[in-house]
Specification:
It is a single chain. The chain is an alpha+beta fold. Helix content is 26%, strand content 27%. It is built from 21 helices and 39 strands. Strands 4, 5, 6, 12, 13, 14, 15, 16 and 17 form a nine-stranded mixed sheet that branches. Strands 1, 2, 8, 9, 10, 11, 18 and 19 form an eight-stranded mixed sheet that branches. Strands 29-30-31-28-22-32 form a six-stranded mixed sheet. The longest helix is centred in the first third of the chain and has 21 residues. It is globular. The termini are far apart. It binds flavin-adenine dinucleotide (FAD). The site of flavin-adenine dinucleotide has 42 residues, from α1, β3, β12, β17 and α10. Flavin-adenine dinucleotide binds next to α1, β3, β12, β17 and α10.
């Protein structure tokens, strides 16, 4: 066995083999895969082999499309068949709500250049005659779906990797992993130690155990999963003979069933409500090529629906029941990327759809390892999207919830209950018991999102339309804008950076100048390619001392970046406050009148200006105060240790009583920021956009120094951005945009040819390096899909339905009427670009 390699990949399932192949294809050939037993010895061998491109996250959909497009190339390089059957598939809606969901999915697919089509139940039946179409109201057809041979595909990756120079070591379990002080990893195996620069954890069912070898508790859990194989069915064979075609795949949401043709019969799998975890604490090392005992009682409710919807099943004999385990993260997406806190330790696990996603995961990881960047926006599957609060029990609760909801409708206003409350602030009981707050889960922290009237049940009725919160959020917005409101803002990431090198270091990471003592700046952070990877508020608290606020959900992602760039000479110290700092924000024209009553210094506009920072006592509690608010009004953020939060909150409420101070939640805050055209991280600000595209020009100081991403940003500035972020006012009535809706414009073919379509991936068309070949998205006469929505909602103060999104820069100047439409739940509504912020465009309210 080789004892040195640049990379050791642990695990020879479809994911490990894909990572190995992609590394070798990218030119890293000194790479070695170590497998405990034979290839496919975890989940991969008994998978149902289905693949599809649709995914709720457009960036993951892109990687799924890449995976599907790769199989041809893989067969050519390896000479090994993947057993591909590109049949296409239909998703069946049994209710109007499910049809809304399919319309939304179809519309979102337009931005990606997907080829989906809405069809009638009768049209679906023509492709899958075993169904009783009277159970359905409509369907979505996707031609880029099918099934393959899981074992053949895994071996095709492995053979192709070997041909390109990689090594595979079988029947050799990894038993421990240690690291030398110089960073070299020692992968301890049954057959000896392999020293390497990088380790990839692709251990599938055992990824949690391999993580524990280096002190990690990865948030993943295996669930038992069952599918049935029927005997030959005459209905299937007749269809094949008559049409010369195979049956298409079908997803029946109501029955939580997926089904497709397998030889002359049917394969039928379920994501049942009563899903069962497998080996919740420790995966046994001696689990081999085994199946679990079938438990048909558990899936009986799904089968009952299946027999009704597909009557031919009832008479079919069952040839085999396959019950096998495979792993999930709490949200069902993979855990990929470099692990924060470790050097060169990479995660490629929790891949629940290895045959749709394995290629994309391999490409992403290889790009990241070889080129230092994943090459796309992959936050939806970044291992850094979870924090240390995702413990074993939390993961267990969330994975079970996610499994049981695999085929449920996800509504935009839905807050799911499992694993909650995980973290709370000292105000939790006041908010829930006294204030009737509807709480949301903000990266594991309970946060008030809106307040129900006293006496009413504090619940959101799940809907794609305006719901129970609409009137109340409106009241909260009006309360803030006309007088004053208070809200919790603990759900931010908070950092302190100190030391003699602090200012120079921050200035090298951030695009804006660093502030003077007592002042605040807003600043984006870029990667080397000049794309947005962060957006921060930075205050200078004193010499060599900076306070920083950013997105909480990106906290681990940002810590990983900060740690990678910290100088080794100790001149910069980085501290993460976590929940040792919480916050309150007061906003509205009376905010100063309230705060002035509680502080000992003069905070008039002359003495405490917009974007000032000060450490001051609020009602006697030591606090850090920022004169800033995301609502766009006069306002303050007040930060403190949790021990003081109840006191400060109560003091604000009693000082504000004479001004009718109200509590407001996150939904009101987000509605108000839309009226100000403020962007938000994860929606408008993501690593697929440059700072000028995102309209962040004033926060980028190209001549200040050689900050990371400066050269690329300078090119974007010189060439002019390809896209532009805009706010549009939409003629919507009962439903507002959510995100990813297509924006249509009236543009002829000639003009259209000059329009970039960077978000589209054109069905399954990629070049050999995995680069998307754009395809023009949907057309309708002169109308074309030219852009997409990133977020939106109702602006309660300005009384308008608002959408933020990206358009090709040359179209973003067209501010007239009748030029744009936005498709919401299948209906296209007129939309008009707002030339300036709809609330206080001059910014005089927040400055005075
Ligand atoms: C019943 C069922 C049906 C499914 N249907 C589909 C489907 O239709 N479509 C789809 O896309 N997906 C499906 N899946 C999921 C799919 O099987 C997984 O997504 C995929 O197999 C995950 O691959 P992996 O490489 O991450 O993990 P695994 O296949 O579990 O591979 C991990 C490998 O790592 C090795 N290993 C672990 N620890 C060590 C160690 N310490 N040292 C050395 N080697 C080690 C193991 O032996 C194993 O070979 C299904 C799964 C099941 C159970």
């Amino acid at each position: 066995m080789k004892t040195d390699a640049r990379v050791v990949v642990i695990g020879g399932g479809v994911v490990g083999c894909s990572v190995l192949f992609h590394l070798a294809r990218a030119g890293w050939t000194d790479v070695m895969l170590i497998e405990r037993s034979e290839l496919t010895s975890g989940s991969s061998w008994h998978a149902a082999g289905g693949f599809h491109t649709l995914n709720g996250d457009p960036d993951i959909a892109k990687l799924q499309a890449y995976t599907v497009s790769l199989y041809d190339e893989l067969e050519k390089i390896s000479g090994q068949s993947c057993g591909l059957h590109l049949t296409g598939g239909v998703m069946m809606a049994d209710t109007p709500e499910r049809m809304d969901f399919l319309r939304m999915t179809h519309a979102r697919g337009r931005c990606l250049g997907m080829q989906t089509e809405l069809i009638t139940p009768a049209e679906a039946k023509a492709m899958f005659p075993l169904m009783d179409e009277s159970n359905f109201v409509g369907a979505l057809w996707d031609p880029v779906e099918g099934h393959l041979d899981p074992s053949g595909t895994t071996h095709a990756y492995a053979k192709a990797a070997r041909i390109l120079g990689a090594t595979i070591e079988l029947r050799n379990p990894v038993t421990d992993i240690t690291q030398d002080p110089d960073g070299t990893w020692n992968v301890v195996t049954k057959n000896g130690v392999v020293r390497c620069e990088h380790v990839v954890n692709a251990a599938g069912l055992w990824a949690r155990e391999v993580g524990r070898m280096v002190g990690l508790e990865l948030p993943l859990l295996a669930m038992e999963h069952m599918y049935l194989l029927t005997d030959d069915m005459p209905e299937v064979m007749e269809f094949n003979q008559e049409t010369g075609r195979e049956l298409v795949g079908v997803i029946d949401f109501k029955g939580e069933i997926y089904t497709r043709q397998e030889r002359n019969g049917i394969l039928l799998g379920t994501y049942e409500k009563a899903g069962k975890p497998w080996s919740p604490n420790n995966t046994p090392w001696d689990f081999g090529h085994e199946l679990l005992a079938p438990d048909l009682d558990r899936i009986a409710p799904s089968l009952e629906v299946g027999f009704k919807h597909f009557p031919a099943f009832e008479n079919a004999g069952i040839k085999q029941v396959v019950n096998g385990p495979f792993t999930f993260a709490p949200d069902g997406n993979p855990l990929v990327g470099p692990v924060q806190g470790l050097t060169n330790f990479w995660s490629a696990c929790a891949v629940m759809a290895g045959f749709s996603q394995g290629g994309g995961v391999g490409l992403t990881l290889a790009n990241w390892m070889v080129h230092g960047d994943p090459g796309n926006d992959v936050f939806g599957m970044d291992v850094a999207r979870y924090g240390d609060w995702t413990t074993l029990r939390y993961t267990n609760a969330k994975v079970r919830e996610n499994y049981s909801r695999r085929f449920s409708i996800s509504y935009p206003n839905e807050e799911l209950p499992a694993g909650r409350p995980q973290q709370t602030t000292p105000l939790y009981d006041i908010m829930t018991r006294d204030n009737n707050a509807v709480m949301g889960d903000s990266w594991g922290l309970e946060t008030p999102i809106w307040f129900a009237p006293q006496g009413a049940e504090p619940i959101d009725v799940p809907s794609f339309h305006r719901s129970t919160d609409f009137a109340q959020v409106g009241k909260e917005v009006r309360g803030v804008r006309s007088s004053v409101g208070v809200t919790e803002i603990a759900n931010f990431a908070k950092y302190e950076v100190t030391g003699a090198g602090a200012e120079a270091w921050l200035s090298h990471l951030m695009t804006n100048n660093m502030p003077r003592t007592g002042r605040i700046v807003l600043t984006p952070m870029l990667n080397e390619a000049g794309k947005l990877i962060g957006d921060f508020t930075i205050a200078k608290a004193g010499d060599n001392r900076f306070q920083i606020w950013g997105s909480s959900a990106a906290q681990v992602y940002h810590m990983r970046w900060f740690e990678q760039h910290l100088p080794d000479d100790g001149s910069v110290r980085l501290h993460l406050y976590g929940m040792s700092m919480v916050g309150l924000s007061i906003a509205g024209p009376n905010a100063r009148n309230v705060l002035q009553k509680l502080v000992d210094s003069d905070i008039s506009n002359e003495n405490f200006r917009f974007l000032d920072f000060a450490e001051m006592a609020v009602d006697g509690a030591p606090c850090k105060v920022n004169r800033i608010t995301y609502s766009g009004d006069l306002g303050y953020e007040i930060w403190m240790e949790p021990a003081y939060q109840r006191r400060v909150y109560k003091a604000l409420k009693s000082a504000g009583a004479q001004f009718d101070i109200i509590d407001f939640g996150m939904r009101a805050l987000l509605s108000m920021r839309l009226e100000k055209n403020f962007p938000t991280w994860f929606a408008e600000l993501r690593p697929i956009y440059g700072p000028y595209e995102a309209d962040m020009d004033r926060f980028v100081k190209l001549s200040k120094n050689d900050f990371i991403g400066r050269d690329a940003a300078a090119r974007e500035f010189a060439d002019g951005p390809a896209l532009k972020r805009v706010t549009l006012v939409v003629d919507a009535d009962t439903a507002d945009v959510i995100c990813d809706e297509p924006i249509w414009a009236r543009v002829g073919d000639k003009d259209y040819a000059t329009i970039p379509t960077p978000h589209g991936f054109g069905g399954t068309r990629f070049d050999a390096k995995g680069t998307i070949i754009p395809k023009p998205p949907s057309t309708d006469g002169d109308w074309r899909v030219v852009g997409w929505v990133t977020s939106g909602g109702y602006g309660h103060w300005v009384k308008a339905s608002l959408a933020q999104g990206y358009l090709p820069a040359q179209l973003a100047k067209n501010t007239g009427s009748g030029l744009f439409e936005i498709e919401i739940l299948g209906i296209r509504y007129a939309a008009k670009i707002a030339e300036q912020a709809l609330f206080d465009p001059s910014g005089s309210k927040m400055r005075s």
